[in-house]
Design brief:
Shape: elongated
Helix content: 40-55%
Distance between the termini: 75 Å
Order of helices and strands: HHEEHHHEE
Strand content: 5-15%
Structural class: mainly alpha
Number of strands: 4
Radius of gyration: 28 Å
Mean pLDDT: 81
Largest sheet: 2 strands, antiparallel
Length: 179
Protein backbone atom coordinates (compact mmCIF):
# COMPACT_ATOMS: atom_id res chain seq x y z
CA UNK A 1 0.00 0.00 0.00
CA UNK A 2 2.92 2.33 0.56
CA UNK A 3 3.53 2.75 -3.13
CA UNK A 4 -0.06 4.02 -3.71
CA UNK A 5 0.41 6.78 -1.11
CA UNK A 6 3.78 7.67 -2.60
CA UNK A 7 2.18 7.93 -6.05
CA UNK A 8 -0.62 10.15 -4.70
CA UNK A 9 1.94 12.39 -2.94
CA UNK A 10 3.95 12.69 -6.17
CA UNK A 11 0.83 13.60 -8.13
CA UNK A 12 -0.18 16.11 -5.44
CA UNK A 13 3.28 17.74 -5.61
CA UNK A 14 3.09 17.92 -9.41
CA UNK A 15 -0.41 19.42 -9.21
CA UNK A 16 0.82 21.99 -6.65
CA UNK A 17 3.69 22.99 -8.97
CA UNK A 18 1.25 23.32 -11.89
CA UNK A 19 -1.13 25.48 -9.79
CA UNK A 20 1.77 27.75 -8.81
CA UNK A 21 2.87 28.04 -12.46
CA UNK A 22 -0.66 28.89 -13.57
CA UNK A 23 -0.98 31.43 -10.75
CA UNK A 24 2.23 33.14 -11.91
CA UNK A 25 0.95 33.13 -15.51
CA UNK A 26 -2.35 34.60 -14.35
CA UNK A 27 -0.57 37.38 -12.44
CA UNK A 28 1.53 38.18 -15.52
CA UNK A 29 -1.54 38.26 -17.77
CA UNK A 30 -3.40 40.44 -15.27
CA UNK A 31 -0.52 42.93 -15.42
CA UNK A 32 -0.57 42.93 -19.22
CA UNK A 33 -4.36 43.37 -19.19
CA UNK A 34 -4.05 46.38 -16.89
CA UNK A 35 -1.41 47.97 -19.15
CA UNK A 36 -3.61 47.38 -22.20
CA UNK A 37 -6.61 48.94 -20.41
CA UNK A 38 -4.53 51.99 -19.49
CA UNK A 39 -3.39 52.37 -23.11
CA UNK A 40 -6.98 52.07 -24.32
CA UNK A 41 -8.13 54.73 -21.86
CA UNK A 42 -5.35 57.11 -22.94
CA UNK A 43 -6.35 56.67 -26.59
CA UNK A 44 -10.03 57.26 -25.77
CA UNK A 45 -9.19 60.46 -23.90
CA UNK A 46 -6.91 61.64 -26.72
CA UNK A 47 -9.61 61.01 -29.32
CA UNK A 48 -12.24 62.88 -27.27
CA UNK A 49 -9.86 65.78 -26.63
CA UNK A 50 -8.97 66.11 -30.31
CA UNK A 51 -12.67 65.99 -31.24
CA UNK A 52 -13.43 68.75 -28.73
CA UNK A 53 -10.55 70.92 -29.94
CA UNK A 54 -11.50 70.49 -33.60
CA UNK A 55 -15.13 71.29 -32.82
CA UNK A 56 -14.13 74.55 -31.10
CA UNK A 57 -11.61 75.77 -33.69
CA UNK A 58 -12.35 78.40 -36.29
CA UNK A 59 -10.36 78.66 -39.51
CA UNK A 60 -8.03 81.57 -40.19
CA UNK A 61 -6.37 80.48 -43.39
CA UNK A 62 -5.91 82.52 -46.53
CA UNK A 63 -6.10 81.24 -50.09
CA UNK A 64 -2.35 81.84 -50.42
CA UNK A 65 -1.70 79.50 -47.48
CA UNK A 66 -3.84 76.82 -49.11
CA UNK A 67 -1.90 77.07 -52.39
CA UNK A 68 1.44 76.19 -50.75
CA UNK A 69 1.17 72.70 -49.28
CA UNK A 70 3.38 72.16 -46.21
CA UNK A 71 6.38 69.86 -46.32
CA UNK A 72 5.84 66.65 -44.31
CA UNK A 73 7.60 66.83 -40.95
CA UNK A 74 7.71 70.63 -41.01
CA UNK A 75 6.10 72.67 -38.22
CA UNK A 76 3.50 75.04 -39.63
CA UNK A 77 1.02 77.53 -38.25
CA UNK A 78 -2.37 75.87 -38.14
CA UNK A 79 -5.40 77.05 -40.07
CA UNK A 80 -7.05 77.15 -36.66
CA UNK A 81 -6.83 79.89 -34.04
CA UNK A 82 -3.53 79.95 -32.14
CA UNK A 83 -2.58 76.32 -32.77
CA UNK A 84 0.53 74.85 -34.33
CA UNK A 85 0.76 71.41 -35.82
CA UNK A 86 3.35 69.17 -37.37
CA UNK A 87 2.33 67.84 -40.76
CA UNK A 88 2.93 64.11 -40.82
CA UNK A 89 0.87 63.10 -43.83
CA UNK A 90 -2.48 62.87 -42.04
CA UNK A 91 -5.35 64.70 -43.72
CA UNK A 92 -7.76 66.53 -41.48
CA UNK A 93 -11.34 67.37 -42.33
CA UNK A 94 -12.79 69.75 -39.74
CA UNK A 95 -16.48 69.88 -38.87
CA UNK A 96 -18.21 72.47 -41.05
CA UNK A 97 -19.11 75.68 -39.20
CA UNK A 98 -20.92 78.79 -40.45
CA UNK A 99 -18.50 80.99 -42.38
CA UNK A 100 -16.05 78.16 -43.04
CA UNK A 101 -14.93 77.81 -46.64
CA UNK A 102 -13.66 74.79 -48.52
CA UNK A 103 -10.12 76.25 -48.47
CA UNK A 104 -9.59 74.62 -45.03
CA UNK A 105 -9.90 71.19 -46.64
CA UNK A 106 -7.13 69.18 -48.28
CA UNK A 107 -7.05 69.48 -52.09
CA UNK A 108 -8.76 66.14 -52.85
CA UNK A 109 -11.69 66.99 -50.56
CA UNK A 110 -12.06 70.41 -52.24
CA UNK A 111 -12.10 68.65 -55.62
CA UNK A 112 -14.81 66.27 -54.41
CA UNK A 113 -16.91 69.16 -53.07
CA UNK A 114 -16.56 70.97 -56.40
CA UNK A 115 -17.72 67.94 -58.40
CA UNK A 116 -20.71 67.41 -56.10
CA UNK A 117 -21.63 71.12 -56.26
CA UNK A 118 -21.42 71.16 -60.09
CA UNK A 119 -23.56 68.02 -60.50
CA UNK A 120 -27.21 68.53 -61.53
CA UNK A 121 -28.39 66.12 -58.83
CA UNK A 122 -27.15 63.52 -56.34
CA UNK A 123 -23.97 61.72 -57.39
CA UNK A 124 -22.33 58.41 -56.55
CA UNK A 125 -18.67 57.80 -55.73
CA UNK A 126 -18.10 56.00 -59.02
CA UNK A 127 -19.28 59.12 -60.89
CA UNK A 128 -16.92 61.37 -58.94
CA UNK A 129 -13.73 59.30 -59.32
CA UNK A 130 -13.06 60.04 -63.02
CA UNK A 131 -13.97 63.70 -62.55
CA UNK A 132 -11.23 64.16 -59.94
CA UNK A 133 -8.65 62.52 -62.18
CA UNK A 134 -8.54 58.99 -60.75
CA UNK A 135 -8.93 55.70 -62.64
CA UNK A 136 -12.35 54.06 -62.16
CA UNK A 137 -10.94 51.14 -60.15
CA UNK A 138 -12.64 49.54 -57.17
CA UNK A 139 -9.98 50.75 -54.74
CA UNK A 140 -10.20 54.34 -55.93
CA UNK A 141 -14.01 54.26 -55.80
CA UNK A 142 -13.99 52.86 -52.25
CA UNK A 143 -11.41 55.43 -51.13
CA UNK A 144 -13.52 58.21 -52.60
CA UNK A 145 -16.65 56.78 -50.98
CA UNK A 146 -14.82 56.87 -47.64
CA UNK A 147 -13.95 60.54 -48.21
CA UNK A 148 -17.56 61.30 -49.16
CA UNK A 149 -18.80 59.63 -45.95
CA UNK A 150 -16.28 61.66 -43.94
CA UNK A 151 -17.54 64.86 -45.59
CA UNK A 152 -21.11 63.85 -44.66
CA UNK A 153 -20.11 63.12 -41.05
CA UNK A 154 -18.43 66.50 -40.76
CA UNK A 155 -21.35 68.45 -42.29
CA UNK A 156 -19.88 69.33 -45.70
CA UNK A 157 -22.21 67.07 -47.72
CA UNK A 158 -25.59 65.36 -47.32
CA UNK A 159 -26.47 61.75 -48.08
CA UNK A 160 -30.26 61.58 -48.12
CA UNK A 161 -30.28 58.22 -49.95
CA UNK A 162 -27.55 55.62 -49.38
CA UNK A 163 -24.63 56.26 -51.73
CA UNK A 164 -26.16 59.43 -53.21
CA UNK A 165 -24.30 62.60 -52.24
CA UNK A 166 -25.46 66.22 -52.49
CA UNK A 167 -24.16 69.57 -51.22
CA UNK A 168 -25.05 70.11 -47.56
CA UNK A 169 -28.09 72.25 -46.85
CA UNK A 170 -26.38 73.70 -43.73
CA UNK A 171 -29.37 73.58 -41.38
CA UNK A 172 -27.65 73.97 -38.02
CA UNK A 173 -24.04 73.80 -39.11
CA UNK A 174 -24.11 69.98 -39.04
CA UNK A 175 -25.41 67.46 -41.52
CA UNK A 176 -28.42 65.47 -40.34
CA UNK A 177 -26.38 62.38 -41.24
CA UNK A 178 -23.48 63.26 -38.95
CA UNK A 179 -22.94 61.55 -35.63
Amino acid sequence: MGSLFEELEAREAAARVRVEELGAELAELAGKLELAREGLERLRIARETVAEVLAEMTPERSAADAADPPIPGEWVASAYAGAERQVIGVLTVPNWQPGMGAEVLPRVYRDILEVVADAPGPVRAKQIVPRIGLPAETGKIEGTRSKLKRLVERGWLDEDNPGMFTPARRRTGRSPNSR
